[in-house]
Write a structure and sequence with these properties.
alpha/beta; Rossmann fold; five-stranded parallel sheet; 6 helices; about 50% helix; about 10% strand; elongated
């Protein structure tokens, strides 16, 4: 008489397969979004004026590009996210002031998700209707997506200005793929700060612009 053995449960394999499929789909959607933002970015129109020109700090080229846009009359307010008053003055002495734009110091951000979080909170607090995000070509997808998440439901529109044109073969650039991977760490930190709900970032640094 043949012995009967209980069938092994298949729910674990199904759950693993479903999880893998969802992860692959998320990565594919992210890649499609990144490529679209590099090839067809939401660029500003010539002469367009923004309530806020938000530069995500990191390179001098980003600062120069944001200041130049403001000097052309394209910004009513200017923020360099990660620079306090003294650092701002150093940049202004080197590259000029942002025309007639009001300068808003923001010295607290240390990561891209914090750039987005604090710049977004400034835009909400001030009642701005649109924001020009200025950063490097490889940094635009991650920065834009995080800022859009921060501004979700606000009706605030976001355009992007790259400090330099992306290389023609940007998909072969190592830094593009590093940024692609960094998005998930930034998203996790952003979500964690939202879930806390008490105005503090990881590391318990206070957010003064609530």
């Amino acid at each position: 008489m043949a012995s009967s053995r209980p069938a092994r449960p298949r729910w674990g394999l199904r759950a693993a397969a479903t999880g893998a499929a969802l992860a692959c789909a998320a990565l594919a959607l992210q890649l499609a979004a990144y490529i679209a933002l590099e090839t067809r970015p939401p660029a500003p129109r010539t002469g367009q004026v923004f309530d806020l020109v938000a530069v995500f700090g990191g390179t001098d080229d980003r600062v120069r590009s944001g200041l130049a846009w403001c000097r052309l009359g394209g910004g009513r307010a200017f923020v360099l996210s990660d620079a306090g008053p003294d650092e701002l003055e150093d940049f202004f002495n080197a590259y000029g002031r942002p025309g007639h734009a009001r300068v808003i110091p923001e010295p607290y951000a240390r990561t891209t998700d914090e750039n987005a979080r604090l710049s977004g909170r400034i835009a909400r607090r001030e009642g701005f209707r649109n924001v020009l995000l200025v950063t490097s070509w490889y940094h635009i997808p991650r920065s834009y997506l995080l800022l859009r998440l921060e501004l979700a439901g606000s009706g605030i529109r976001v355009a992007t200005l790259s400090a330099e044109a992306p290389p023609r073969g940007f998909l072969r650039e190592r830094i593009f793929w590093l940024e692609y991977l960094k998005f998930w760490g930034s998203l996790a930190r952003w979500a964690k700060s939202c879930l806390r709900g008490h105005g503090l970032y990881p590391g318990e640094r206070p957010l003064p612009v609530d």
